[in-house]
Amino acid sequence: MKKSYTPILIIIGVLFVALAIYYWATAAGSLPHWLPGxxxxxxxxxxxxxxxxxxxxxxxxxxxxxxxxSKPESKSGQSKDLQ
Length: 83
Description:
It contains 2 helices and no strands. By secondary structure, the chain is mainly α. It has one domain (6-67). Helix 1 packs antiparallel against helix 2. The model has no long low-confidence stretch (mean pLDDT 85).
């Protein structure tokens, strides 16, 4: 039996989108030191870091969408109603 990982992907997607907004709203000098892009006393914003985080978040949403789709019922290509 295969476990569904759709809720995990949705949570990760939300976190990446929130990170993108945080990158766009916060100057590089105000970022936590453990985040990529931190620069001491810098006032510019990392737009590329935010764009990448947004792309990763949307990618997680798309992956969750496809993972939650319906599975084929039989390997012969026919549904149970036609048999």
